[in-house]
């Protein structure tokens, strides 16, 4: 199970992105409706249940951050304020969780509106690089496969973070076992 929160300011395409992933369909208009979707997919041969919390921008940030295993942070490539909000969200998430490495994918949406672009792809890539996140530019309106890639790469990061959390105890166990073997006479 992977609990995913989709964050971003209003009208950046959070719901369109989520619904495109869940149904392969694009729906252009959404209201401010809070929804939690559950969806089963097979990623690299593993059956994964995604619980996706898609909600308006304003409420319950702390509660959602604590609930989530990973995050999709969406901005519109045509809206500078939405990009700046993503920058602040990354810091908020990392501060709230007390961790530096958090499974986060930054998504620049509305690539089909390139003629209205105000945020360069390089800015998104640089933000992702400097914050140890992944980055994709997509268009929920025109392409299902790029949306699928966003969620598949996020699940890879979530699974990697869950195994890295468990790993230290395993290493300590191995060290204890090795010590026990070599100290016997």
UniProtKB/TrEMBL annotation:
Reaction(s) catalysed by this chain's protein: GTP + H2O = GDP + phosphate + H(+)
Keywords in alphabetical order: GTP-binding, Hydrolase, Nucleotide-binding
GO molecular function: G protein activity; GTP binding
The UniProt record lists the keyword Acyltransferase: no
Pfam families named among the record's database cross-references: Ras
Family: Belongs to the small GTPase superfamily. Ras family.
This protein's name: small monomeric GTPase
UniProt organism field: Oncorhynchus kisutch (Coho salmon)
Lineage: Eukaryota, Metazoa, Chordata, Craniata, Vertebrata
